[in-house]
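Input record (Table S2, row 412):
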Amino acid sequence: MKKLIKEIKGYEVLDSRGNPTVAARVILNDSSEGFAISPSGASTGAYEAHELRDNDKSRYGGKGVSEAVTNINDKIYPALVGMDCENQTKIDETINSLDPTESKKVLGANATLAVSLAAAKAAANHFKMPLFKYLGGVNATVLPRPMMNILNGGAHAKNNIDIQEFMIVPTAQIPFSENIRKCTEIYHTLGSLLKNYDITGVGDEGGFAPNLKDDETAIELICSAIEKAGYTTDEFKIALDVASSEWYDSRDGFYYLPKRQKKLASSELIEYYANLTQKYPIISLEDPLSEDDWGSWKIMTEKMGSELQLVGDDLFVTNATRLEIGFDYRAANAVLIKPNQIGTLSETLEVIRLAQKNNYSTILSHRSGETEDTTIADIAVATNCGQIKTGAPCRTDRVAKYNRLLMIESML
Ligand code: PGA
Ligand code: ZN
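Output record (zinc ion complex):
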């Protein structure tokens, strides 16, 4: 057999914030190769798989990942050598068997994910198939709807906006490339509207990062940009990623908005969302409540879940066990899928299947710290996940995923 794993190499490379991250190369005995890079988040959920960093202050301010790279070279490589690259489940189980912790604390999910994805890419290359086809087969035919993040706040920007992401979402069933064109036109129109504002540049995900009177002004400006670009708010809706776990204090159960210095009870926050969604064409709210506030999630889903997409990111952390808790609580109705939150491809695919089986919507997602790696684009198409979040049409780390989807569209 020519598809056995012959060699695996780990590397310390850089992400879009200039922080080290882990890359892996998997080489088969027919010389087919796969290469993948793990991303890294800023507003990470408390229940995510562990991102292993050296904490050696003399290198990269403690953010080095040389230990994770050593884990690939010294532990994962010897365990996987000689394995059939087509058996992804077995590969991922073998990786997991090397780490007795639930959260991949020993190996680091940054190490495990890079190898897991690189193995799948090596297999796809062996079969001379694009990754989306190798993973999705004949079902891989539908491009995801872009949720394009065009204005950044929260932990992703140095401005005065508390909500982390303001996205536009096209509603029409038109080709992906048409949606990208229109979304990009709106992005540029927003840029020209912001010329008269105090703007701090772009945030981590390429959206503009202005200082504004309040967060609502951001939504108003986006609505104006949609119309000024020649479209309507029927054609383009708004989605927000509140990332409110960043605001939550579990000691007293209140939300503290750090930039506006506001303190809100969960009931007040839900009221705020009810007003916002009445007033503006909002169709989706991500992490409107904290990862630890299950009771409020239940109340909010009961109240607003039939009309709004309510997305659990920090809440579910791409983890099947947490998603099952969500089903029990009837909390949220959609799940954000970030492969590095769980640390292997098989577990990522399992969570997507579980969500789809239970009628929760799925959204493939990048991280705020990204690279040229475009694997999420292929996973989105392979799984028919429906939606993708991969930032603004700005910064190559974001644009690379859109460009990969445009190439996939041309292949279908
Ligand atoms: P993160 O942000 O990568 O910083 O966690 C992305 C998100 O919250 O969706
Ligand atoms: Zn999020």
